[in-house]
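Hi R.,

Here's the input for the adenosine-5'-triphosphate complex you asked about:
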Amino acid sequence: MHILRLNLAQLRCFESLSFVPSAGVNLLLGANGSGKTSVLESLFLLSHGRSFRPGGNQALIRRGQAACTVYAELDAAGRTYRLGLERSALGWRARIDTQTVPRLSDLLAHCAAICIEPGSHGVLTGPAEIRRRFLDWGVFHVEHTFLETWQSYQRSLQQRNVLLRVGGDNTQFDAWEHAMDSSARRLNEWRRAYLERLRPRLQEHLARWLPELGVPALRYQRGWSAEHSFIDVLAAHRARDREQGHTRQGPHRADWSLGFEQAPERHQLSRGQTKLAALACLLSQFDVFRESRGTTPLLLLDDLAAELDAAHLDQVMGYLQGNGAQIWITGTEFPQRWQAGIQVFHVEQGALRA
Ligand SMILES: Nc1ncnc2c1ncn2[C@@H]1O[C@H](COP(=O)(O)OP(=O)(O)OP(=O)(O)O)[C@@H](O)[C@H]1O
Ligand SMILES: [Mg+2]
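And here is the predicted structure with adenosine-5'-triphosphate in place:
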């Protein structure tokens, strides 16, 4: 898929911006604070319904304004979709082809973007929540009933937590735990299968960029004991969970990890190695999306050159140029040798110049 046109209004430093990117590689160059990351952020919003930056969704709205909008014409498998997303104090409003859609996820299902930004290091070194999000984004685009299953799990989890606090009887617990168990098993199976699909791709990318780290080990933890069924774990932990006031095991506690023969601990990776490993994870996700959906997601690479030496940057760029995706790269500068034959935009004072 690729963006044919992008319009922004009242988003961060942009009052209004409208431009036509190339279907191949787009490089956004500009000084610090000129708005490069904000352009990538706007595309990420269409795919994730949230920003990748801290500060919450209200921070996206240009200071002094009531709402911001992102409008994109997107080509997906030869069909053009007009996607509109507005953020105001009332929340999100999403439109597809001028029709307001009831759920934000209806819009998100149309646009897929994979983004590497400074926070992507979190896939390796951050809290489990980042890794669960990574996994669930992938599963969301492969399994059509993922979202409703996840929501159903969340609802029954909340109900069980209420019972833990107010003191429900066994019949009430049985009912909610039964509902949790049925969604948990599906979520777990999807996540496990998704990681298995990533595994060979990830090994390929890591062998190319980080051969010095030796054999990688990808491990999945489903969120509850490997020896017992979830329903048994829930029943056995009622008393302890009551003391804590919440459910301590389940798919809401799932995690996965990537370790290396030559760097078994996360903190043993250098910054550049962490970035390359995160890039490998996200590009494996790109590969799996392409295999299952037959179209490439957008690739957003914020400050790609930062932390990479010239040889690694050349390797990564050489690989990316051949992958057929629409790619968005930002930087305060970028090596001249990679600027030939790609679309370069200069970002300055809320404007974009080709
Ligand atoms: N809500 C807002 N209203 C107005 N301006 C904002 C808002 N949020 C951020 N900005 C400003 O928008 C500008 C764009 O920031 P952005 O992070 O996109 O820049 P950048 O080009 O990626 O910079 P860098 O090279 O430092 O990464 C900054 O000057 C920032 O202060
Ligand atoms: Mg930036």
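One thing worth noting: The longest strand covers residues 2-11.

Cheers,
M.
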